[in-house]
Amino acid sequence: MELPQETSIHGKWYRDACGASLALEVLGERWSLLIVRELMLGPMRFSAIRAELPGLSAKILTERLAGLEAAGVLRRTTLPPPASVQVYELTQWGLEAAPVLRTLVQWAMRSKLHDPSLPMTATSFVQSLQFSLLPEAAKALEGRTVSLDIGAHSFLARIEGGELLVERREKPSADLHLSAEGANAFLALFYGRMPFTDWLADNPARAIEGEAALARAFVTAFAWSKKIA
Which PROSITE patterns did the record assign (predicted)? Predict the structure, then answer.
């Protein structure tokens, strides 16, 4: 059997046939994995990606997007009218990296080096909820829907089959509505178990609309894994 020849991507760094080396060559450049993370919940415009990753220059973002497109991880497309703007979205192969990203995030968050006080994007916060949903809590919330307004970003989340499914959606109808000025503001509520009254009083941009019992059940349905010894 004739073996495939080395490509322009596989072998550029490590000259190693292992899939792990190719994965690093595709996603291992600085910012590449974070770009993929931001696109996991749906298409985004160039400006929106850059706004979520403020340390990333337009030049480097352009280079990384081109590299990921050439590798088959993402593609450029145009939203239908009335938007009619160019966006970037993950290909099916790119989306298949989701469980890899989930495992990597869960593994890293167990480290004592993980610092949750650092800035967090709206997408990374929502994904943290997907990765930290408690099984018993998920059963009690089956079928319920929650809208999350995080700064300029809106998401619709629903519990289905023990999983938290999330999509970007503007002003969705839901059983519960939660709003905050940014992703980090939600950390104290979801993971710090901050009382609702104290959390709401900290910033007028915050809101909780819906049944109090449902709100309490939802925000306490998540927990980070214990740190390694």
Answer: HTH_HXLR (PS51118)
Burial grade of 33 (CB within 10 A; 0-12, 13-18, 19 or more): buried
CA distances 110 to 75, 115, 119, 177, Å, are: 33, 11, 18, 30
Which pTM does this prediction carry?
A: 0.88
> Which residues make beta-bridge pairs with 78?
86
DSSP H or E stretch at residue 147: strand 145-150
3-state SS assignment for residue 64: helix
| Residue-wise pLDDT tens digits, 112-167 | 999 988 999 999 999 999 999 999 999 999 999 999 999 999 999 999 999 999 99
Here the tokens at position 123 are: 């997408």
In the chain, what are the domains?
19-96 (1.10.10.10), 119-219 (3.30.1050.10)
